[in-house]
Amino acid sequence: MASEKGIKLLDFWVSPFGQRARIALAEKGVEYEHKEENLLAEKSELLLKSNPVHKKIPVLIHDGKPVCESLIIVQYIDEVWPDKAPLLPSDPYQRAQARFWADFVDKKVFECGGRLWKLKGEEQEAAKKEMIEILQILEAQLGDKKYFGGDTFGFVDVAFVPLTSWFYSCETCANFSVEAVAPKIVLWVQRCMERESVAKTLSDPKKVYEYVRFLKKRFRIE
Amino acid sequence: MAAERGEVKLIGGWASPFVARPRIALNLKGVAYEMFQETVGKKSELLLKSNPVYKKIPVLIHNGKPICESAIIVEYIDETWSSDGASILPSDPYDRAIARFWTVYVDDKIPDAIRKLRPLVKGSAVAEVEAEKLHAALQLLEEAFEKCSKGKSFFGGDNIGYLDIALGSQLAWIKAVEKIVEIKFLDKEKIPGLVAWSERFYAHEAVKEVMPEADRLVEFTRMLLSGSFAK
């Protein structure tokens, strides 16, 4: 494995985490081989060998060396290809802020979103309340800026935008509107979609919803 | 020199392994700072204002600007005082990715294991189950140490680095939990590399005064569980 040159990304079509890596690679104009893992079946030898600790995608394999964890992969991509489309700002304080908010998105959005479509009744209501708070915090952080980092598309935008394909599923399952609580976030998503890297990568929210319905049936959540 | 550093404040608590991280990093860089100890069970105005999102320690306040989350603070310290002391993060992007990966792993496994073990007693069935998980995590970290250290003293090589700080800061509580449930985790037979590393870590100038005594943490646990810190 160590002697193989080139860049490979082990991914799963609907994974927002894999999409983070894909957006970063596209922003940098880096050529790579995209390998689709079928997570609904058996995991490939390569995945198990490349990420023995977690056995999860995405995994970026660069000249045979695997990098795991989506935000770590994005930082790695930013550091290896620093000249084009820098994703992290150069000022240490701004970098700390970017890392903080990407981490916030990581800790809060997907997990809470998952509860929204997996649970029912009181638990779902509690998750909905939490999600609204999370969106309001992010809305305040975005403010009137073009992107989370300011004028340039950056780390927090990459971290958050793939998760927005799941809004439709959350809204439909839990009966609420993201636009009603966070209109600036909705406009920000539209701005991000004007970027080729994002438009070509993000899953169609309706397709995500089909997948969520499939998962609910499979795990008998309906 | 001191004036160029600016005003450095750290909001923290003596018992928190997460607070130990920026303290060690600041010591490595030779940066003096003012410590604001939080009282357990009562959050200060300064903390609530500086970390409105999580209301948690540590918070570094540099020239009035707050930075939150221990691992992020350590990177900030490394980047801000980059010409002071050795580099905390490795210089190679791949090595950085590995250091970050294992730091995320430490944060995922160790604090949870400590939280679950510390209210238990010796011999409890739950303690056995949770202990197995901690043993398994430490075993993986032993292998990581072999790979990262490449025969040198620390995960970071000759000097204490990012992953040394991430895992090392958890040692005090691991030792405390050993006493509480009477199970040996830092076992020379099972994880010789890490045990030797932990002794070097504890002995380091930048670490010595920062790590709390295990006995003090055992007492702290007793007080925590008996509700002594409740408002």
From TrEMBL, chain A:
Q: Which Pfam families match?
A: GST_C, GST_N
Q: Which residues cross the membrane?
A: none
Q: Which domain of life is it from?
A: Eukaryota
- Keywords on record: Transferase
Any one GO MF annotation of this record: glutathione transferase activity
Name the InterPro entries for this protein. Glutathione-S-Trfase_C-like, Glutathione-S-Trfase_C_sf, Glutathione_S-Trfase, Glutathione_S-Trfase_N, GST_C, GST_C_Tau, Omega/Tau-like, Thioredoxin-like_sf
Which ranges carry the GST C-terminal domain?
Answer: 91-219
Task: Indicate the family of this protein.
Answer: Belongs to the GST superfamily.
Q: What is this protein called?
A: Probable glutathione S-transferase GSTU1
Which species is this record about?
Rhynchospora tenuis
TrEMBL record, chain B:
Q: Which PROSITE patterns match?
A: GST_CTER, GST_NTER
Q: Which Pfam families match?
A: GST_C, GST_N
Q: What EC number(s) are associated with this protein in UniProt? A: 2.5.1.18
GO molecular function terms noted in the UniProt entry: glutathione transferase activity
Q: Which reaction does it catalyse?
A: RX + glutathione = an S-substituted glutathione + a halide anion + H(+)
Q: Name one GO cellular component term.
A: cytoplasm
- Biological process annotations from GO: glutathione metabolic process; toxin catabolic process
Superkingdom to which the source organism belongs = Eukaryota
Stretches assigned to the GST C-terminal domain: 92-220
Which keywords label this protein? Transferase
| SUPFAM superfamilies in UniProt | GST C-terminal domain-like, Thioredoxin-like
Q: What class of enzyme is it?
A: transferase
Task: Say which family it is in.
Answer: Belongs to the GST superfamily. Tau family.
Q: Quote the PANTHER family the UniProt record gives.
A: GLUTATHIONE S-TRANSFERASE, GST, SUPERFAMILY, GST DOMAIN CONTAINING (PTHR11260), GLUTATHIONE TRANSFERASE (PTHR11260:SF788)
What is the official name of this protein in its record?
glutathione transferase
Source species of the chain: Rhynchospora tenuis
